[in-house]
Specification:
Layout: H1 2-6, H2 15-26, H3 35-52, H4 55-61
């Protein structure tokens, strides 16, 4: 897509053009139709799965403590998820 639109490989494009391409690819993320959109979704999912199953993702970021019983679960604290 970068070569077709900008005449050079993605990695050689300036950051604003790279971002523009990613925004275009992610517009139909919920219902990808084009091959490039399906590729974007697959790469994004693989990246997320890879990160959150790595030691850094699961232990440092998610602070996973292992299979232990929780005395209490506070739930989500994000306002956009209904916590007010």
């Amino acid at each position: 897509m970068a070569e077709a639109e900008y005449g050079k490989p993605y990695a050689d494009c300036p950051p604003e053009r790279q971002v523009a391409l990613l925004k275009e690819l992610s517009e139909n993320e919920e219902n990808p139709r084009k091959l490039e959109e399906r590729f974007f979704v697959a790469v994004k999912r693989a990246t997320i799965d890879g990160y959150y199953t790595s030691a850094i993702g699961i232990h440092q970021d998610m602070q996973y403590q292992g299979n232990t019983a929780l005395a209490e679960f506070e739930g989500c604290k994000h306002d956009e998820h209904g916590n007010r």
